[in-house]
């Protein structure tokens, strides 16, 4: 018997996937100056790529907007891809307890350009940004 190629629980036709895609598009329409791309990954998690200058406005929006409430910063991490011009990808993982939802915000930088700290919006970022 052949095993299925994909997990049926993670179908891209899932209504959750569709709602997350719509929500990502909605955020992109509300913050067009900063949002560059939205996508829902294979685990049904919304990922938003933002311009580096959008860190504070986007994180503030996601924390304070009635339909977001992403008040819990779970983690900040970075990926180094030396072959890219902007080799560092900084990833912010958030949780909205009110809506039981997660979101991942990504931005980028090179080795000479500093990014704004998320500390003014999320005090816990102080610990994550020490690396």
From TrEMBL:
GO cellular component terms listed in the entry, alphabetical order: membrane; mitochondrion
Catalytic activity: a ubiquinone + NADH + 5 H(+)(in) = a ubiquinol + NAD(+) + 4 H(+)(out)
Compartment annotation: Mitochondrion
Gene3D superfamilies reported for this sequence: NADH:ubiquinone oxidoreductase, 30kDa subunit
Keyword Ribonucleoprotein: no
Annotated InterPro entries: NADH_quin_OxRdtase_su_C/D-like (IPR037232), NADH_UbQ_OxRdtase_30kDa_su (IPR001268)
Keywords for this protein: NAD, Translocase, Transport, Ubiquinone
GO molecular function: NADH dehydrogenase (ubiquinone) activity
Main location class: mitochondrion
Family as reported in the entry's similarity comment: Belongs to the complex I 30 kDa subunit family.
This protein's name: NADH dehydrogenase [ubiquinone] iron-sulfur protein 3, mitochondrial
């Amino acid at each position: 018997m052949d095993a299925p190629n994909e997990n049926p629980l993670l179908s891209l036709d899932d209504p959750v996937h569709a709602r997350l895609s719509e929500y990502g598009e909605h955020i992109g329409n509300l913050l067009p100056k900063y949002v560059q791309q939205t996508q829902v990954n294979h685990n049904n998690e919304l990922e938003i790529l933002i311009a580096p200058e959008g860190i504070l406005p986007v994180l503030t929006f996601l924390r304070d907007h009635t339909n977001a409430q992403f008040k819990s910063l779970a983690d900040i991490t970075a990926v180094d891809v030396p072959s890219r011009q902007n080799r560092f990808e900084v990833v912010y993982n958030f949780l909205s307890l009110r809506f039981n939802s997660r979101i991942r915000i990504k931005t980028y930088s090179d080795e000479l350009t500093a990014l704004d700290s998320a500390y003014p919006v999320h005090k816990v970022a102080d610990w994550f940004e020490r690396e």
